[in-house]
Amino acid sequence: MFRERIIVQDSLVADESGSAFRIRLPWYRALPLSTIEELSVTVDGTAFDPARLRIAVNDGEWALAEAQLRTDDVWFVLDDATVRLPGLVLDAGAHEVQATLSMRIPYLPVAGKPLSMAETDQKRMDVKELTA
Prior knowledge:
6-stranded mixed β-sheet, 4-stranded antiparallel β-sheet, Immunoglobulin-like, mainly beta
């Protein structure tokens, strides 16, 4: 629905501990974190292990598997989430970042099951140094 707006342009940051970038919810209403079915990331053509990535929303940060259990934590449409890639140290310059986000829309049944949608966005961004 909003695939070209999933990755926030110019949000790629990095330091010696890893990298991060921001994403937006590809839907028009807030959804619980438990509706995330998949979040996959590739940087410069190399897939990052989804079991290692972390997602930060509101004032919390979780591994993807933990976030998928968070029924009471809501991702609001106007709030960016930060995707952290621990250990992925990037050199200065431009990098190709791709994210695929699959969400389950619990209140829209299709053939007796909640609607499931997957959107992919790709951006070329210059890495910025992560500041405290």
